[in-house]
Amino acid sequence: MLRIAVVGSGPSGVYTAEALARQEAVPQVAVDVLDRLPCPYGLVRYGVAPDHEKIKSLQGNLRRVLEDPRIRFLGNVTAGGPGLPPERMLELYHAVVYCVGAATDRHLGVPGEDLPGSFSATRFVSWYSAHPDEAPDEFLLSARSAVVVGVGNVAVDVARILARGAAELRRTDVPEEALRALEKSRVTDVHMVGRRGPSQAKFTTKELRELGALADADVLVREDELALDPAYADPQALPAVARRNVEVLRDWAGRLPAGHRRRIHLRFFLRPAALLGEDKVAGVRFERTLPDGQGGVRGSGAFEDIDAQLVLRSVGYRGVAMEGLPFDEALGIVPNEEGRVLRDGGRSPGEYVAGWIKRGPTGVIGTNRPCAKETATALLADAEALLARGELSADPLEGLRAAGQRPVEWTGWEAIEAAEAALGRSLDRATVKIPDWAGLLAAAAGSPGCPG
Questions:
Q1: Are strands 145-149 and 346-353 parallel, antiparallel or unpaired?
Q2: Tens digit of pLDDT for each residue in 254-284?
Q3: What domains are there in the chain, each with its CATH number?
Q4: Could you report the per-residue pLDDT of 66-93, keeping only the tens digit for each?
Q5: Beta-strand (E) ranges in 217-374?
């Protein structure tokens, strides 16, 4: 039997497991999907905004894959750490596919970025998504003005959560601590700022329009900034999404504010130059940029300060090196050839990658499916050589436990789900996520086969 470990249970990991388990070229395949967290689904659980219920429903599709009898979910397993380095993993499995994503965010690289009140959008998303690594932090309470640097979908998400009434979030699975903080939030102005123009923004039109549908927030757009974009006057030659974005923004620029309690300011052609403040963030200094005629921007030498007590940067993700695996620092990926890991320019037998750690943080959730299929195809083509290593000595689960891991099996995850449903009922809400490691592991321990 070909035993394979897939490290990571987000979309790329689950799609890889599915491609491996449901193929017919290799008769007997067993796939263990390992995750550092006791819960599956990766960014679908911990990166999709709580009010995006349609996208979050993708969990149902991922669940059906993980319930396949040829696939076993093992959470609370840290692959790549001191107890489970890559060489040890290859003693437990014929092949290992690393689907660990891009785990950190990019920095602005400007003075003052480390002042209190400055955070990555990733941290904010983790906070309202109940990621157990993110300690409860009521950093919203004193801020009246927030700046979100970036104009992608994550930036739109965090701006929307800041501007949305907490009462609307009660029906979601947002953790109770975050909900209480959002109820007390004093934020009235949210500035979402991009260094280039509206035709180059990375958000999708659906996400953008959601800002205009908020019950108690005005969306403010400056037509003079939109007009700096060469494509603004005639967007017909733009790709469909960019054209629709410009059309939505053009419509908003012509509207008068309705006097709602909160305001979302969409700003363009502004590049952060410094975060202002002495002992905490007090504002952001931006340099006005201008199109350079080649698709980029150049500085104008003119500056504008925006008051802010909370700054969230959303300027992209980056892969993180895993101990024992090769890593390309420039690209932020594990060097690979069609998913086969490369060490010193040659293929490393039994080691594979898929998802963002393979290709970089590009594409949408669905992009992971063909990426996973390519890696699975490469692995299966190598199956004969992998099996030639011989039968493994024992069930890998016992090897994981011997290495000091305390795996949470699928029944443990089901126990967590039941505990979160019970928590929601106790708060007169729908399912509410458990936000901390102790609570998750205690819930999992209520099921046989889980850490006690």
A1: unpaired
A2: 899 999 999 999 999 999 999 999 999 999 9
A3: 2-103+319-407 (3.40.50.720), 106-316 (3.50.50.60)
A4: 999 999 999 999 998 788 999 999 999 9
A5: 217-221, 262-267, 270-276, 283-291, 297-307, 310-313, 317-318, 336-337, 340-343, 346-353
